[in-house]
Amino acid sequence: MLNKAFTVMPIALFSVLALCACKPMQGTNLAITGQIQGNGVDVGSRVGGRVAEVPVREGDTVQAGDVLLRLEDSDAQALLHAAEADQARAASLVAKLEAGATKEQLDQAESAAQAAAERLRMFENGARDEDKRGARAAVDAAASQSANTKADYERINKLYASGAVSQSEYDRVRTAMDTMAAQYKVAKEKLDALNKGARVEEVAMARADYERAKAALEEVKQGPRAEDIAAAKAARDAAAAAVERARVNLKEMTVTAPSKGVVEALDVRPGDLVKPGAVVRLIDPEDLKVTVYMGAALLGQIKLGQKLPITADAHGAERFEGEIYFIASEGEFTPRNLQTQEERVQQVFAVKLRLNSNGGKLRAGMTVTAHVPGVPEK
Predict the structure, then answer these.
(1) What contacts 4, CB < 8 A, 6 or more positions away?
(2) In Å, how far are 151, 162, 173, 183 from 156, measured between CA atoms?
(3) Tens digits of residue pLDDT in 19-32
(4) How far apart are CA 195 and CA 201, in angstroms?
(5) How far apart are CA 3 and CA 263, in angstroms?
(6) Domains in the chain and their CATH numbers?
(7) Helices (H), 252-324
């Protein structure tokens, strides 16, 4: 998206090389031409999305923190809310485990263990004598009632055969007889079970239930294990990290200026879809540089930190100042393999100078000339 064509490349004034190739006169300043470059920064979003707002335009001066571009953030907001909900659940689980069981949970576990113990004791000891007596009395009562209803049925059946009683009366008496017979059977089976006692399988099942209830009670008393708490804390930390990632993602939906500068390139509009990466280029108008190329004979006349006078075509003979901050360690331009003295004078070295705008007089793209002291005669 970002057009890199605006980057200004330095231009060497090759006619100067001819001056470098010749034996310069003592006290002569050599003029070497180049173009000013602005140090800029490419700004954008690491996530991309649909452009919602573009509050600045090319050429605007912005301060650090000013909004350059906003992307639609509804999805990012939803992801953040979901991450925060997961974090709250994870934190709640940690708090629950660290607090341990409540009094209600402890009482419930104790009651369950006690009930299981009583059931096991009942199966192991068998029925009590009073239970057996009660069951036997129930059998006797059911047997007596069954005999009475059977006698009633036999009497009614004879009358029904002769037509002396109705069908409904016959059905009522027969139903009563069948009911009492069933009750007698149930009472007798209960008495037989009490006399025989619990089966081995029932005792084993009751013992297993008791062991489970007792183990559950001990677990409630001791509280959660250390490894369970550690796992819950790890899940809580992971949820916190997810929240932080979601916040960073949401922050990326707003592109801001990292420092003061001038908007040099901005080619997006609301509604555009932009990919992750730079979409805006900012230039610092006070952080300028110029690259010039000098022959090897001039390297002895310059050093890092040295100030050189600068003139600009736009300002005539007015002098500015540039500071050397870089001198190339290797020469440039062909031929690369320089053997003879005549060829060696064609070798040039890149030299970079730092300068400021001098109140806005110097701008990126301007052609300027650096004035370098000549090599003294030997």
Answers:
(1) none
(2) 9, 10, 7, 21
(3) 333 344 344 678 88
(4) 17
(5) 13
(6) 4-71+259-373 (2.40.50.100), 75-98+228-251 (1.10.287)
(7) none
- What does 327-349 look like in DSSP terms, one character per residue? E-SS-BSS-SS--SHHHHTT-EE
Q: What is the pLDDT of residue 127?
A: 58
Please classify residue 1 by burial: count the beta carbons closer than 10 Å to its beta carbon, then call 0-12 exposed, 13-18 middle and 19+ buried.
middle
Measured at the CA of 350, the angle between CA 23 and CA 8, to 5 degrees, comes to 125
Tens digit of each residue's pLDDT (9 = 90 or more) over 325-342: 999 988 776 444 444 444
pLDDT at position 239, please? 95
The secondary structure of 190-226 as a DSSP string is HHHHHHH---HHHHHHHHHHHHHHHHHHHHHHH-S-H
Rounded Cα gap, residues 102 and 80, in angstroms: 33
The H-assigned helical ranges of the chain are 15-21, 74-99, 103-125, 129-162, 167-196, 200-222, 226-251, 341-344
Question: In the prediction, which pLDDT does 6 show?
Answer: 37
pLDDT at 134: 83
Backbone torsions φ then ψ of 311, nearest 5 degrees: -120, 155
Q: Could you report the per-residue pLDDT of 215-256, keeping only the tens digit for each?
A: 887 777 777 778 888 999 999 999 999 999 999 999 999 999
